[in-house]
Amino acid sequence: MCMADLLRDYPTSMVNPMASFRSFQREHKRFYGEWLYEGDLEGDFLRILGQIQKAAIESPVGVEIDF
User: Fold this and answer.
1) Which of 16, 18, 36, 66 keeps 20 to 30 A from 51, CA to CA?
2) Between 41-58 and 17-32, two packed helices, what is the crossing angle to 10 degrees?
3) pLDDT band per the 50, 70, 90 thresholds, residue 15
């Protein structure tokens, strides 16, 4: 869901991806209250952004991301 929010507001969301992340956290807390995700959401979000950046640099045409 967090990546979907990032993509929904693309390309402006990429100026400050953490602002999109924080916005997602506030929305989720307001509507759903508690988290069902047991992992480190912020760490996973940053890891995925890093994978996207690395893939875009190494192979700008054939980007494949493992979610």
Assistant:
1) 36
2) 140
3) confident
Neighbours of 65 (CB within 10 A): 10
| 7 closest CA partner among 52, 59, 44 | 52
Full-model pTM = 0.61
Tens digit of each residue's pLDDT (9 = 90 or more) over 29-51: 888 877 777 778 888 888 888 88
Task: Return d(Cα 31, Cα 14) in angstroms, integer.
Answer: 24
Structure tokens at 62: 């054939």
Has residue 63 been placed in a domain?
no
Helices (H), the chain: 2-8, 17-32, 41-58
Residue at 65 is within a domain: no
Q: What are the structure tokens assigned to 23, written together?
A: 């916005």
